[in-house]
Amino acid sequence: MHELSIVQNILDIAESEARKNNATKIIKIGLKIGEMSGVVIDSINFCFETLKTNTIARDAELLIDHVPLTGKCKNCGSNFQIKNYIFRCDTCNDNNIEIISGKELFVDELEVE
Ligand SMILES: [Zn+2]
């Protein structure tokens, strides 16, 4: 499962950050997950609950911030939200679109004690 290695990675990052701060416990991990990051949120939650048990994050809460898919039109320069994966400008109908957000997947918040 793809999500299993992602969550393992997230826990590794969180644990090493916690150690750097001499913390013994991770309370909260905040994630930013883009609409087009390719992961299933339910699986992320499930893997987190499974993998955290033997770590210092065993009581940690996982907060997921969803980032919508947005694009910028290279023709007219307008920014817009891409819906239903239709990569077409909603102003000028051009399909020369640059993706500005929606692919991210990273830890953006960590609370330790
Ligand atoms: Zn346009």
CATH class designation of the domain at 2-68 and 102-112: Alpha Beta
Ends: how far apart? 31 Å
Order of helices and strands: HEHEEEEE
CATH architecture descriptor text of the domain at 2-68 and 102-112: 2-Layer Sandwich
Q: Number of helical runs?
A: 2
Molecules bound to protein: zinc ion
Mean pLDDT: 96
Q: Give the percentage of residues in beta strands.
A: 25-35%
List the helices and strands and how they pair.
Blueprint: H1 2-20, E1 26-34, H2 41-51, E2 61-67, E3 70-73, E4 79-81, E5 97-101, E6 105-112
Parallel strand pairs: 1-2
Antiparallel strand pairs: 1-6, 3-4, 3-5
Helix pairs in contact: 1-2
The structure holds zinc ion.
Plain-language structure description:
This protein is α+β, with helices and mostly antiparallel strands. It has a domain at 2-68 and 102-112: hypothetical protein PF0899 fold, CATH 3.30.2320. The chain has helices spanning 2-20, 41-51, and strands at residues 26-34, 61-67, 70-73, 79-81, 97-101, 105-112. The chain has a three-stranded mixed β-sheet, with helices on one face. Helix 1 (2-20) packs across helix 2. The longest helix is centred in the first third of the chain and has 19 residues, at 2-20. It is elongated, with a radius of gyration of 17 Å. The protein starts with a helix and ends with a strand. It binds zinc ion.
